[in-house]
Amino acid sequence: MAVTTFDGQFSFKQDSLARLGDRGAPKMNSQQYEAFQNSPFMQGVRKTEDLCWTFTTARDDKRKASDPSFEPTDEDFSAPKAHEFDRAINYYKVLGIDEYAPLDEVKKSYKKLSLVYHPDKTSGLSEDQKEEYAAIFIELKNAYLTLGDNPTRRQYDRERDRDKASFEVNGFKPKVRPHFDASEVLKKLQEMQRPPGKQVDIPVATKLEKFCYGGHKGIKRQKKVKDFGGFKHEMRIYRCDIPKGAKEPHEVTFRQGGDHHEDTRADTLTFKITSKPHPIVERKGPVDLALRSRVGLGLSTHLEPILWVESPVLNGKHLLLWGLNPFFGQRAAKGELQLRLKGQGLTSAGCLHLTLRAGLATRAGGATKAPTTSKTSFSSSVQRTAGDQIVVIAKHMQTEGQLWLRLPKDATIGDVREKIIKVTGLPRNATVRILQQITGGGGGFTPFPDKQPVGSIRSLNCAGNTWSGVTLTPATSKEFLQEVVAYSDTPLFQEKLALTPATRWQTEIFTSLASVLPEFGLEPTLSVMQERLAEALRQLQRLPTQDLAAGDWLAQKIKALQEPPKATESAGVSNAKDAETQERNSLKAFLKMHKLGPPGGFGYEAPTHGEGGICEAPALLRRLARQQQTEPRGEVVMTQMGEPMTLFTRPTCSVTFFSNLHQPPAMRSGQTIEHKLTFAVTICSPSCAKGKAAFEFEKLKANLVPLLRLTAFHMFKACREILPRSLANKPHQAAKDAETAELGPTPWKQLGDEAFKRSDFFTAQACYCRCLDETTAQERETDPRAVAAVYSNRAACFAKVGHYDASMADAKIALELAPEWGRAWSRLGLASSKLGQDREAVDAYKKAVTFDPSAANMEALLSCVKLLQPPNVDQAHVEKEAGNVALRGNEFGLAIACYTCGLALVPPEPQASVPGGVAPEDEHALLRSVLLSNRAGVRCRLKHWALAREDAQLAVDKKGDFTKARTRLGSALLGCGEIEKAYIQFAHALRHENNNAAALKGRQACIGIMPLWNSVPARRRSRNRFGEDLWRPRATTKVFCISDIHFDHKHNEDWAHRIDDFEFQEDVLIVAGNACDTRNALIRCLTTLKAKFRRVFYVPGNHELWLNPSEIDKCPDSLGKLLVLMETCDELGVDCFPSAISEDVFIVPMLSWYTAEFDDKDPFPDPNAQFDQQCKWPIDPETQVWKYMLKLNEAHLRKPYHGTVITFSHFLPSRNLPFAAHGRAVKAMGCEDLNEQVKGLKLRNRVHVYGHSHRHHCAYDEGILYVNHHHGLEGGREERAPIFMIHDGKAIVKKEHDIYSGPIRL
Question: Disulfide check for 52: which of 162, 456, 667, 1080 has CB 3.0–4.6 Å away?
Fold first, then answer.
């Protein structure tokens, strides 16, 4: 795109005058004059003046009644004005006073508000807040100047009365300009004078997942508020944000957010949020998590070389573990392995702790060999010892039904309620009250608090939803039988099994298995066990088809338990010792068959070591017994491998890999398990943390876990080395015999460099010495730079250990070999500085900067010059001129050295006399800025863009109105790829010097490059946001739209805060321009909306591009403000570039501006029309701005879209859309060429959202749905002013949607 397309010197008004000439007003004769006076226009003017006089007289009478000192005179209307007021601003509201208030009240209100908004009172606020307060104070001052002078006030009231009369006579609505409203501020100031209310602490419990993933908790609470002299109660929702890893209790305070009172301020509410007990994990320390139960590895884990563990962690998080089995090769499966996964706690600094137990039955989801599809883990009856549990009997007071519940010792009443709901199958929202009897008085029952521990209570009374017992469904039957089978695999049960005679088999076995029954709410007796076991076996036949295999396997296991073992011919099979002997005999037979036994056969048995000696001493035998009883333990510490990998599944999840490759080896001992190479994978999907998303996560695991099990642990080389290697098809022969291979020379320099990096300076020095000793004379002649590098490095080693003389000697030798090497000069400068030779140090560092102008060398030169010479302004000027001479001679390094010396000689900046005060003006700021700017210019010549940007930014900070500094900063930013920021600096430079050639050239270059959107921020914006939700399911996201919010009007701001906090958290909102007038108001607006919606898309309208006086320092023109607003959107997480919001749904923001060609009756600009005078453009606003806006859209239209595309702009894309067609306003309404870009996306489903016209519209035109849902200046006065839904997640829709449901919020 050619830069000359945008010529800012063109003026349509000058062209019109050249073509048409200056035509003066024609004169009228007497008849024409009389007809004109009797015309309806003049009659309306006279009516307006009469009505205006009536309004003025009534106003004066009311002011006399309220202010006896008020004396109106006719001379007031001709008196000079104390201030050039703007009648479109209501100065009475600015000061928060009544229109008939006396002058004393005007002065009192101004003084009270000045104590808040005066610039001297804003210390400690942010820069944005200071700018906002400064703008408000200007409005307050203007209001006081207007209303504090009686003649000026009467003239102001007269003009407003005339506008009011004109509205009643002609229907012309007077202009209203947004302004500050002090009424609410004064109410708050008055409220602050009252004594504070009570401090109310409210305990709240929430899911542990909110502390892990972060989130918010909505709390409904009744609030007492004032209502027309009385009080009423309304329901209020308090949103409490919980950051990731927050401490417990996490406190969220709402100051004066509680009940209102007559004599005090409102109460302050503090919500103390804690986590509910989690069934799988518990919080351990500030940021750690730990699995509540041990993970069983099974009874045969010592026979498997590879370890495989699978375990749920939190809702939305799953763990897979794989690696070498540390229990492999043991005589029996026993021992515990403690695992720590770093970074998997509540925060990245926390750990996830879990215990792997050998000899404990495997839980579902672990390394079980049985076919199972159960999604529920086995209960704590298999994982906890009997001492950790209690059994509580719960009795329903109405049905007399009873439940036997197994609970942990530390269980609470809330745990009892959850257990009852689980075993009875009641819905989650069922009412279950646990009652305690009131002692004394009239008796009766009262509910237990949820957090009260059960303690020694073993019998509880219940009420609420009725239940009479436990009914086994197919699913619970399957879980019950899994629990029975798991318990039958425990060592305790197996020992009892071996000792039980066949005659008492049924009684003993079922009595032991009855201990499982309380886990399911059943009485632990023999008869109940036999009855429920038979019922569960019958229910297995009703399982779904995909679970029948697991049901058959369970039925076979239960059948095997019911039958006593048969006697065999092998002697001694009834006990474990004889079974081991039988296995040994079978092994001997195998070895004899294949002739692998000893030469003498197996008849000879060697005597036991120490037989009959000290090894059989009682003390040693007791020690051996104690060692055998003590179980071995080990620890594995796993760290993260790389960054988490995002998978675009449904729902989206991330996969993180861990390993213990960096864990140091443990000290070996008899009771310590040596850790082996272990790897882990965590699947995390925070969107599945909600209970209603549990099914989606289970479905995700069912599809993803088998795939990860087969592939994830084979992607790394360290994992593949664990597996057995394949045999080669042919033998491998080395290319060269290892004994005859010649060894190359020892890389002494490389060894020295490595030692230097690890701060082993003596070793590095020795290596460099060996390298120099082995260097030949020929090498010194052929490659002197390499030899100089060794001397320079050794000089650095000497300097590190304090041998500065030796360092200087080596540096001088290096300079003899390479006299133009900057690093050697810097070594010499350091040694000279440490030896007190300041002049030599300065000269050496100056040479170093000349040959190598790095940041370190410049900083060292700056320090040395400051030590050598005191500040001297004249000498600084001399250095500056020397730098200019060097620059003209293209000696860039020398120029940088001279400018650096000049900076060192400039006197330091003056400091404030008190901390936080204002520093005196720096009289040398210009010189400091010139030196920094010149050095930045040299950096630009060398293409050291980052260093040039730092120097130029410092120059601008020292002297903001220095044009050359702004230009240099713009050039550096342009070189860094930050085109938007570069444009702003060039525009600032032109604001100070409008004919600066370099600034003009730089600004035109930015204007030409910008439509490519190839800058660093633009590329980051597209890369991070475009495909973020590309694979998000469509049904999860709705799209709403609105335009012309005008957030800077208080009732519209209140409307935005009334939007429901939770209903739209997964949805998207499109804001089609005119959100507000200033950047600070836009930040408040978008922050509010972003808290309500998952994503917010926004394009600016004409109001946002107005230049407010308080924004000139940041936004030099309207194009610069557009770029600043885009940067603000990036900071707030608001989208202003195209992006996918879900699968096959895209939203494309389109920039736009109006053109006079939109008026098909008169398609030429009107020289007398003054639209958007507050805008200032670098190009012609009439003929070029709209073309440039369309040019900015072209790069976005080339992206790969499919499915449904929703485009939106602020201005109208077509004349066929409804708008106010009267007067010249049509010339500032839209752009027909914008519609060509909208139609250019030739897709099936298209929607275009627009604003500006203030006309509601929703209709199809040529296959495109055009929607305008404007909010307007007065939209917020409607309590539930709706937003408009255009996509319900499945298809395009057309319907309004309330911003909240439930009772009206006042």
Answer: 162
